[in-house]
Amino acid sequence: MSAYTLLTNISSLVTVDAHGGEYRTGPTMMDIGEIHNGAVLMDSQIVAVGPAKQIEREYADQIAQARIVDCTGQTVLPGFVDAHTHMVFAGSRSHEFAARLAGKPYAQIAAEGGGILTTMRAVRESSVDDLAAVCRRLVTNAMRHGTTTVEIKSGYGLSLESELKLLEAAHLVSTTSPQEIHITFLGAHDVPPEYRTGVAPFNQEGYVQHVIEEMLPAVKAQGFATACDVFADVGFFSVPQAERILEAAKAMGFALHVHADEISNIGASSMAARVQALSADHLEHTSPDDIARMRDAGVVAMLLPGTAYTLRLPFPDARKFISEGLVVALASDCNPGSNYSENMQTALSIACAALHFSIEEAITAATLHGAHALRIAKRKGSIEVGKDADVVVYDVPSYTDLVYHYGVNHAVRTFIGGEEVWTACSTR
Ligand code: NIG
Ligand code: FE
To answer: Which of 15, 195, 210, 413 could form a disulfide with 383 if both were Cys (CB 3.0 to 4.6 A apart)?
Structure first.
């Protein structure tokens, strides 16, 4: 079999060309580098990209050996880089979802021992293989919807043993999945029952110490997680607690992410700037001062439209983040509680309809900027010569249709490292 593949006659080829850069802020988020009647020649990396006629003329030798895929009437995009998910868990929270629809707040369910703790109970009863099976299904389904790189957080074990189990399950999936998977330790996701003694906020401090002194060193020794995250919000962890955990993690060489300003603003996104997190995520309640601090510290603003939609939170002020020049990324936040969707096409649709992204900005945010949030934009997130050949074919004539014609899966072929890892039964 030839190592080369040529995607040609692409009606709408969206390169998200960053011209060697790692992000594009402000008005330049609009520059998605669309080529009509384009072609992409690839082996495991992108070899050439441009107008079909030009590529066919300049690369005739390679094309003579290539597998040719005709993409007439179709759209090609870089694979989505979904840089914030919780795809490793067990059980269902559909009953809590129904209760929330009936008006019960997310924070109240959590305070009553449900929410994250509901999932924790299911995780503690599961084996690594059980957890890997759930994770694999979600990761694979994400691939069928155009996601070629995924970040996965632990955080539903909340004990040393169960957190290591979740990380092992995510690692197991990463060894068999064609997607590149980045694993994050989120031990400080909620306070487990063992530390819920006395009155609220219980023995939160005891758990914070446990995370710092026992969990982080064990997670480091296990070697699967490369980043650490903390849920810093009212009813979860305070800013000083989160900062201590994150500083300890940083000292051990972990990259940092923060769940910030989701339910309320307790200063978590400004703290993300202080600890120089790669990203601050959620940001439904972020203030103008926080935005300036994040921008100055180079923290990516990771917006999660599906979560605000599902939890009926105020939508983050995406226009403000973009106009203030932050690197704005979009991710699914796929998890069993606040957003049970692994479909990034849906995330784009909500981002445009509810957060006032343009379609072009949303595409930049879900590809190049997702990659930058993981600091892998030198290799991923755009279709540029020398980058990994992670590209997706959609059966729509223009990229605008991905958002316009929403709620259905338009992806028909997913390539990762130049390999066609998924093909729809019918591509026409
Ligand atoms: O990103 N905010 C914290 N963590 C998840 C939700 C976790 C859950 O409800 O299971 C989130 O929304
Ligand atoms: Fe999350």
So the answer is: 15
The pLDDT, as a whole number, for residue 2 is 57
Ligand 1: centre distance to CA 302 (Å): 14
Give CA–CA dist 285/282, Å, rounded.
8
Q: What residue type is 241 in one-letter code?
A: Q
Residue 362: φ, ψ to 5°: -65, -40
Q: Which residue has the CA at smallest separation from atom 5 of ligand 1?
A: 338
Residue of 274, 284, 336 lying closest to 313 (CA atoms): 284
- pTM value surpassing 0.85: yes
Distance (angstroms) between ligand 1 centre and the Cα of 331 equals 13
State the angle between helix axes of 344-355 and 359-366 in degrees (0 to 180), rounded to the nearest 10: 140
* SS3 sequence of 342-353: CCHHHHHHHHHH
CA distance 377 to 396: 26
Minimum-distance ligand 1 atom for the alpha carbon of 263: 2
pLDDT band at 426 (very low <50, low <70, confident <90, very high): confident
User: What's the average model confidence in pLDDT over 1-5?
Assistant: 78
Q: Residue 415 in contact with residue 380, Cβ under 8 Å?
A: no
pLDDT tens column, 129-159:
999 999 999 999 999 999 999 999 999 999 9
Torsions phi, psi for 426 (to 5 deg): -125, 125
Domains by residue range for the chain, with CATH: 5-78+382-423 (2.30.40.10), 81-373 (3.20.20.140)
Give the ligand at the shortest distance from the Cα of 156. Answer: 1
- Identify the residues whose C-beta falls under 6 Å from ligand 1: 86, 115-116, 119, 231, 259, 262, 307, 333, 335-338
CA 253 to chain centroid? 21
Contact 231, 189 (CB under 8 A): yes
- In tens, the pLDDT along 36-83 reads 999 999 999 999 999 999 999 999 999 999 999 999 999 999 999 999
Give the residue whose CA is nearest to atom 8 of ligand 1: 337
Instruction: State the closest ligand 1 atom to the C-alpha of 281, by its place in the atom list counted from 1.
Output: 1
Closest atom of ligand 1 relative to the 259 alpha carbon: 2
> Are the CB atoms for 12 and 397 separated by under 8 Å?
yes
* Closest ligand to Cα 84: 2
- Which ligand approaches the C-alpha of residue 116 most closely? 1
Q: How far apart are CA 361 and CA 366, in angstroms?
A: 9
User: Is pLDDT at 1 greater than 50 in this prediction?
Assistant: no
